[in-house]
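Appendix B: complex inputs.
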Amino acid sequence: MANESGLEFEKDLVELEKRIEELKQFTDHREMNMGGELKQMEERAQNLRENIYSRLTPWQIVQLSRHPKRPHTLDYIREIFDNFKEMHGDRAFIDDRALVGGATWLNGKPVVVIGTQKGKDTKENIACNFGLPLPEGYRKALRLMKFAEKFQIPVVTFVDTSGAYPGLEGEERGVAEAIARNLREMSSLRTPIIVVVIGEGGSGGALGIGVGDQVLMLSNAMYTVITPEGCAAILWKDRAEAPRASEILKITAPHLKKLGVIDEIIEEPLGGAHREPALMIERVRERLSEHIQRLSKVPIKKLLDQRYQKYRGIGFLTEIAATETSGQSPTAPQAPADESTDTPAPPTSADAEN
Amino acid sequence: MDWFRKPKYMTVRVKKEKKAGIPENLVTRCPSCAEIIFNKEIAAALKTCPKCNHHFQMSAWERLRLLADNGVFIEQTSGKIQAGDPLEFPGYADKLAKGRKKTKLQDAILAGICAIDGTKTALAITDFGFMGGSMGAVMGEEIARLIERAIVDRLPVVIVSASGGGARMQEGIISLMQMAKTSAALSRLDEAKLLYISVLTDPTGGGVTASFAMLGDLIIAEPNALIMFAGPRVIEQTIRQHLPKRFQRAEFLLEHGMLDMIVQRQQLRETLGQLLRISSS
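Resulting structure:
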């Protein structure tokens, strides 16, 4: 887990950066000229940065995607949009603090924003239940989406959760039903939906606000059917094997783009979104502006057909030839022949990472 | 020294009782009431325990025989596609091969057009015996194709779930997206004003519960079926408490407003027939 000195793999860098900062402060106070030395140290830091962050392993990306100092949903909402009016409650039971949303404006036009909210520290995390929504969170989200549909306002959702809260009350109050309903309603919501995976995309809890016309993902975010820890526990009965599981599960942005699960990757600043949050947020704002403008012009019937075909086309299977007997192993996997060109090409062996 | 002290604990050797001349494969011990029952009796009771009404799991083919008129499809639509291995997941190919051998299915689903008590219906059945009935790309595709077919032919849809496995981990994110795919297809079925009845059997969980299984216009469950989103062990680890008795069982869900009704297996075909006639009349 991350702490003040950073993640394990960036320890040396964080240490060096701290020393540079100290030296700067020291010289500032004493009007000494240490420029040459400082420059050298900064060069070293830059080299180290490029070395570490240009070839992150999937497990390092998992850690970055969960970094507590990353900008979270409300940071994006407050910085990107104007005059955010938060809306509360599912009108039936409670207001879930793990899933927030409301109305706001971008470039003078109204937008409905929704997202799962994680905290930066323990106090914040207790307030928002670590970003693990209850059924009422998904129901509030749906209520706001229906509001958006009524006035044809585009919807932007921010995904950052390790999943729906796995507790007693969620089961009692039908979290599965709440997610399922959102999947069905979002697939046919008569207004554009743009999804941004900003950190952790954890399974059904993420997908419950994650169906849309355009799915964007930050370069150090992850999106997975099961946490690497959960997968390791099943496969090897040992959660500590999570790094190995993260290699297998193919949860990083480039893989997901190849499989057609996401549409676009937004590059993070070197070292991750948390190192330059303002720059990161600006990049997201720029992409959202463009997509909202573009999608708002698409006739609604065409938009819905494209959205349907996008999800309809995600698969990875083999058509069995009529003559082939059952039980034979598939040859090269290929998408079913009757599907549109939206179907993503299956990765070739050259794409395989391990 | 107390040589004759009675030991606090002692091992008692129990002789393995021989089941007086009855071959193993003729009887089953009911996991609910522990009675030893002849398999013939269980089969005659549609795979329920004649003593305590425990509902044993059924394979997809058995379920088809139970529900479809004459026990057969008019036209089977499933079986023409096979799973790929998008992650080259360790052991997946073997698991698929075992599942195929065990269930005589290409994947964890059987689908087609049949008549249920006289009403022509698009029917899909998932099979717990095939990798826990988990949903990968094949199940998503079969369900989407069946629903699209039902829209063209104006048929009601029944899906019987026996999918404790939820979304299939071995296909990674692809399996998660089948939740969106099946739900999107059901949205179109809804727009076409066609009836969808979801039947939940033991066990149904995870990504299956959180997609097509909970989207029925009507939702029926078999008695005592385990129906969940998160597994009980995961929940216990999170809340660090023991779960209440009967938690996540069909009766619990009915009480909490998640189901329309619980139907005994003996009445399932007849009940479905009656409900299907609502939409076809």
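The two ends of chain B are 89 Å apart (CA to CA).
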